[in-house]
């Protein structure tokens, strides 16, 4: 077997193991299926009934944001399972096996990809039921879903890195919540970022989450001429900048996570 | 035939703490070496280096003829390792765990599945094989972990405190499995804090303390190092302890120990059974009432104490595993 074939085969084996694990662990499964459904219904009905936007239904405006929010939140599962594995000694077993060393992280993130496909599909279906509509061409819509998955994959390497640096599930959960909350709420997920007060406005507009949300809105056609794109540069070129973010995140966090993984397991 | 495991001058430091201070080992093929020592002596670090999990700071080692650093990847398909903490996945069933390990040894899907079933049967886990490991007892997890180490039929096996946390029955079962493997030609290096375990399983024992091998030999050789046999006597009256000590002092080859609470005296002797007869003759002449008398070999506990100056268990700060 060539090193590349081995890396792929071993990555698949690990990813199958993680998939079995998620299927059997109710708390993880809840994160994949129930959380996205709850997020869609909760925010659509609670905020949707209070907020009126000119030219577009709030549900349509909100859904792309909820997609991104759920990706950020459920990427924590990657980190959580990694920290759990770190404490259980299963990595010691893996490391005495003649497997590709990259397989653990590749397998983990591949499995998260499957998980994200499931949860985005669930949200899209529930979204369609409660009034979300795709108003772009089918090609653009596919592009929208692919961009969300690309973001999800890249972001799971970020949480993997945080997890490998912190190493305990409890600490990881606390820090991850602390990071993901401002990331999601200081953005354009729920509100129009251009109407935020003073210093919050540039923070929200340059927040990468806002860029992804803006890109998703454009690709799904959930925009309106009555609500022009804010002047901030990343939002003006949201799709291109989003792809750029994903590439940058992978370029930084794949080597970083790999290094931290080696350090974490070689003690 | 070259030895299956060779270590020369292994050194490992963690910051200012020296975990290994020049470990030398040599294990002939098909034999068992027991690494005996208290927690923190360097046993686990040694095993982690020999199983390619850690790089030594100095020294080198070969296992099955392969260098543990330079040939690490090739070596991994020739060794099996079972650690202190059962390295099994809770959410997977026993069968799935073993199949996964088989795949990662690149045995292929069919062979992995077949091997998983064989091992489940061998370790008496057939009935539990399709249940998630979550519901397994500590002993079952340990057996599954050991089964995982055997998936690729490795010629060299490393067992790090294999029986820590097992009840006596599970421990006896484990010992039986290890003995069978060795009878089949497997070379085993095992670490233990249980002197009984080393005595029972190991052909040779390396006593490790503060990152060094301080004694090496068969259990008998180690026992001889602390002075062959001991006569153990129990008297009925504490007043007689002094008489016994005075009368038998000429027979002793090392310090005579008296235990006033147990009313017992221990006399290290050189002459075997004959010295017991002589001792009893002397005591009868002095009219000492002996309630119990016997000749015994020193225990490994005594060996350990005399070699290290401290008891095997005094450094034990860790809780037993789950």
Structural commentary:
- The complex is a heterodimer of chains A (267) and B (322).
- Chain A is an all-alpha fold.
- Chain A is 77% helix and 0% strand.
- Chain A is built from twelve helices and no strands.
- Chain A is elongated and about 60 Å long.
- Chain B has two domains: 5-223, P-loop containing nucleotide triphosphate hydrolases (Rossmann fold, 3-Layer(aba) Sandwich), CATH 3.40.50; 229-296, Alpha-Beta Plaits (2-Layer Sandwich).
- Chain B has a six-stranded mixed beta sheet, with helices on both faces. Chain B has a four-stranded antiparallel beta sheet with strand order 2-1-4-5.
- With 322 residues, chain B is an alpha/beta fold.
- The chains are: A mainly alpha (267), B alpha/beta (322).
- Chains A and B meet through helix 1 and helix 5 of A and strand 6 and helix 3 of B.
Give the overall average pLDDT of chain A.
Answer: 90
The Rg value of chain A, from CA coordinates, equals: 19 Å
Instruction: Give the uncertain stretches of chain A in residue-range form.
Output: none
Which pair of chains forms the biggest interface, and how many residues does each contribute? Answer: A-B, 27 and 32 residues
- Sheet/helix structural class of chain A: mainly alpha
Strand % of chain B is 25-35%
**Any idea what the CATH architecture of the largest domain in chain B is?**
3-Layer(aba) Sandwich
Count of runs of 4 or more consecutive helical residues of chain A: 12
Whole-number total of structural domains of chain A: 1
User: How are strands sequenced across the largest beta sheet of chain B?
Assistant: 6-7-8-3-9-10
Q: Please identify the top-level CATH class of the largest domain in chain B.
A: Alpha Beta
First-last Cα distance of chain B = 41 Å
- The named CATH superfamily of the largest domain in chain B: P-loop containing nucleotide triphosphate hydrolases
Gap from first CA to last CA of chain A: 29 Å
């Amino acid at each position: 077997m060539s090193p590349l074939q081995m890396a792929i085969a071993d990555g698949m084996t690990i990813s199958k193991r993680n998939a079995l694990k998620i299927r059997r662990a109710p708390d993880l499964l809840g994160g994949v299926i129930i959380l996205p459904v709850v997020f869609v219904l909760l925010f659509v009905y609670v905020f949707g009934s209070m907020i009126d936007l000119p030219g577009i239904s709030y549900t349509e405006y909100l859904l792309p944001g909820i997609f991104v929010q759920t990706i950020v939140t459920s990427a924590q599962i990657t980190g959580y399972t990694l920290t759990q594995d770190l404490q259980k000694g299963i990595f010691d077993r893996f490391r005495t096996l003649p497997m590709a060393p990259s397989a653990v992280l590749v397998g983990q993130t591949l499995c998260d990809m499957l998980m994200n496909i499931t949860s985005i599909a669930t949200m899209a279906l529930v979204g369609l039921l409660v009034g979300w509509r795709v108003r772009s061409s089918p090609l653009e819509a596919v592009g929208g879903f692919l961009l969300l998955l690309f973001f999800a994959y890249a972001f799971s390497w970020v949480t993997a890195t945080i997890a490998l640096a912190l190493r305990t599930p409890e600490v990881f959960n606390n820090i991850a919540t602390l990071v993901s909350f401002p990331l999601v709420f200081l953005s354009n997920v729920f509100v129009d970022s251009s109407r935020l007060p003073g210093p919050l406005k540039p923070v929200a507009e340059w927040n990468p989450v806002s860029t992804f949300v803006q890109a998703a809105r454009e690709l799904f056609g959930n925009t309106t001429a009555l609500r022009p794109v804010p002047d901030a540069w990343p939002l003006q070129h949201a799709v291109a900048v989003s792809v750029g973010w994903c590439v940058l995140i992978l370029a930084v966090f794949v080597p970083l996570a790999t290094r931290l993984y080696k350090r974490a397991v070689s003690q | 035939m070259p030895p299956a495991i060779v270590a020369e001058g292994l050194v490992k430091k963690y910051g200012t703490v020296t975990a290994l201070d020049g470990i030398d080992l040599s294990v002939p093929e098909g034999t068992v070496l027991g690494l005996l020592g208290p927690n923190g002596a360097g046993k686990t670090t040694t095993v982690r280096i020999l199983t390619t999990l850690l790089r030594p700071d100095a020294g080198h080692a070969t296992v099955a003829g392969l260098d543990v650093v330079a040939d690490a990847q090739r070596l991994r398909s020739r060794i099996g390792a079972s650690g202190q903490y059962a390295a099994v996945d809770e959410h997977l069933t026993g069968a799935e765990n073993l199949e996964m390990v088989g795949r990662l040894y690149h045995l292929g899907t069919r062979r992995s599945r077949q091997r998983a079933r064989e091992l489940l049967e061998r370790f008496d886990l057939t009935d539990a094989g399709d249940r998630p490991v979550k519901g397994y007892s500590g002993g079952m997890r340990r057996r599954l972990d050991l089964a995982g180490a055997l998936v690729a039929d490795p010629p060299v096996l490393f067992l790090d405190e294999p029986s820590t946390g097992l009840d006596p029955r599970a421990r006896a079962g484990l010992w039986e499995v290890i003995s069978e493997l060795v009878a089949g030609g497997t070379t085993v290096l095992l670490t233990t804090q249980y002197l009984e375990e080393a005595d029972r399983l190991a052909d040779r024992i390396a006593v490790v303390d503060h990152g060094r091998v301080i004694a090496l030999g068969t259990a008998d050789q180690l026992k001889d190092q602390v002075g062959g046999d001991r006569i153990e006597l129990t008297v009925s009256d504490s007043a007689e302890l002094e008489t016994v000590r005075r009368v038998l002092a000429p027979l002793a080859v090392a310090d005579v120990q008296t235990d006033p609470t147990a009313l017992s005296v221990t006399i290290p002797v050189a002459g075997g059974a004959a010295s017991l007869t002589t001792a009893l003759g002397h005591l009868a002449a002095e009219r000492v009432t002996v309630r119990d008398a016997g000749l015994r070999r020193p225990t490994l506990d005594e060996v350990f104490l005399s070699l290290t100056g401290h008891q095997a268990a005094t450094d034990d700060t860790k809780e037993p595993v789950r």
